[in-house]
From TrEMBL:
<dbReference type="InterPro" id="IPR036779">
    <property type="entry name" value="LysM_dom_sf"/>
</dbReference>
<keyword id="KW-0732">Signal</keyword>
<dbReference type="Pfam" id="PF01476">
    <property type="entry name" value="LysM"/>
</dbReference>
<dbReference type="InterPro" id="IPR011990">
    <property type="entry name" value="TPR-like_helical_dom_sf"/>
</dbReference>
<feature type="domain" description="LysM">
    <location>
        <begin position="289"/>
        <end position="333"/>
    </location>
</feature>
<feature type="signal peptide">
    <location>
        <begin position="1"/>
        <end position="20"/>
    </location>
</feature>
<protein>
    <recommendedName>
        <fullName>LysM domain-containing protein</fullName>
    </recommendedName>
</protein>
<dbReference type="InterPro" id="IPR018392">
    <property type="entry name" value="LysM"/>
</dbReference>
Amino acid sequence: MHRYSLFIATSLLFLGCSSVSDNNHTPQTITNTQANRAVTLSHIRAYLLIGNIEKAEQLFQGLGHTENNTQTLLILSELKAAQADSLGAQQAFLLAMDNKIASEKPMVSFVLLDYFCTEKMWPAIEGYGRSINSAVISADLKNTQLTTIGQCYFEQDKWQAARYWFEQLDFSGSISPTVYLALAREAVESTQYVRAKDLIEKYDTVKSTVNAHTLWTAFEVYTALNQPQQAIELGKQLRILFPNNSFTRRYILLTKRERIQAMKEDPLPSLTLRSSLPLPLEPKSATNAFHIIKKSETLYQLSKRYGVTTSELMSWNPDIVIDDISIGTEIRITPLR
């Protein structure tokens, strides 16, 4: 009897251990499956990012049954968009959002485009744009969606891509002022300055609001067009309206570098001796009452050019700071009368 009891106990212990082992194995298998799926999804995203849509499609098909989880559906939406299947992209996106925006189906394309833009999903945006171009929709709706796509590239300083999508617009309809600004900036990039001047003037005519990015972009255009007064005014607006913005910091660093470079090229006489040959004097006539600061110019240079002292220039221009003069600043070079 004792031996029989010992055998039963040993058997039960063995079965119990096997049961525990099996119970521990199931969650581990599930975890491994989830991990494999996550790795595959990351590979699909990588192929989409480099524009290999065919390989991304193959990997997605290899997943077999696609679980209705947010991440899988969002990647499916991105894949469908890259394939120019806008309807499939929207359907997958709605499912990913758990139908929370199902009541907004007419507007889902803008929500989806905003998502693609925020995540910088360029192949998806390109494919979606192609589907919009070939779709039979109203001119106003097409303009709005193409403007959204162009704006996305504009905000990332992708000037040529922004120009391409903006040029697909129907300019006989209503056009966002930002379109003219972005096209002006791209024209500067391609050294088409006459075109840039025409476009920036259109932008200034129709603009109604500004932000730090548009102010900075307009500043770049006017600087390239050698219109310092407008550029200076935009720089002032940046510093006043958006003092802590990254574009404002970029503007401050740019002007600071220019001042440092100017000081290196033409230090004050107390630091080093300049050539004994004087700069040609210009008469103090009524037409020469003011001088517009150009790149690398300093008060010391102006004093030599106009035959005055730096102290006089400072007294005639009490608002300027000797080491903080921006390009385009108007400097009085004759006494007040």
